[in-house]
Amino acid sequence: MIKANKDNFLKESGKALEEIYEMLQSLKRISLEELQKERTALIMVDLINGFTREGALKSPRVEQILPSAAKLQRACLLKGFPILAFADSHSMASPEFASYPPHCLTGTSEEEIAEELQQVGGYQLIRKNSTNGFLEEAFSRWLKENDRIDTFLIVGDCTDICIQQFAETLKTWFNKENKESRIIVPMDLVETYELGMHNGNLVHVMALYNMTINGVEVVQSVEVQ
């Protein structure tokens, strides 16, 4: 229940959103050079055809980050960072389709990594059947096999769904294990879609804010040479 009348709710929410926006604008930029090779991995989430160029959830907002994501991917590859690429892959039996339109069906081009990232290469592909890639067994195995990695650069989409769920779950897993970690989300390399009441600007900002207050290191950008 919203414990305020409509006018007060909109007034108070508008003020809070303005403060959140200003806080996000004040966040720092970091350099890729400051991250240690032995401890850092790049995670690319759902930068696939089904969220960029094809299907019910395609978005030009997401498509426009592909060149910059490929640039960071290339720089991480040259530095020797491990790179994982998550990709939605569903059957028509997916209960997820009660919440979202059918998308990224197994065996279709929608589930394929965007061409820009394929051209760079150097990543391990993990297909996922939910919004949270952390839950995939392949990622659990990777995490155990790469236990020296405690710094993660996370890029892709959707800011308010797959990115937020993965980043916060990863951070809370490290917290549970009493291990220090840096879970880094560059604001310029995550995006979300517009569809009906799903206002891209609003949910993007609120997801960044929620990640920030839950220990995820949201930054303006990651500078590469």
Q: For this entry, what is the oligomeric state of its chains? A: single chain
Mean pLDDT: 94
Number of strands: 9
Main beta-sheet strand count, sense and barrel state: 7 strands, parallel
Radius of gyration: 18 Å
Terminal-residue CA separation: 50 Å
Low-confidence stretches: none
Q: What structural class do helix, strand and pairing data support?
A: alpha/beta
Helix content: 25-40%
Shape: globular
Architecture overview:
Helix content is 40%, strand content 17%. The strands form 2 sheets. Strands 2, 3, 4, 5, 6, 7 and 8 form a 7-stranded parallel beta sheet that branches. A two-stranded parallel ribbon has the order 1-9. The longest helix has 20 residues, at 6-25. By secondary structure, the protein is an alpha/beta fold.
Care to give the gist of this entry?
It is built from eight helices and nine strands. With 225 residues, it is of the alpha/beta class.
Topology readout:
Layout: H1 6-25, E1 30-31, E2 40-45, H2 49-52, H3 60-63, H4 66-79, E3 83-88, H5 115-120, E4 124-128, H6 137-145, E5 151-157, H7 159-176, E6 182-186, E7 190-191, H8 200-213, E8 217-219, E9 222-223
Helix pairs in contact: 1-8, 7-8
Jot down its keywords.
globular; two-stranded parallel ribbon; 225 residues; alpha/beta; 40% helix; 7-stranded parallel beta sheet; 8 helices; 17% strand
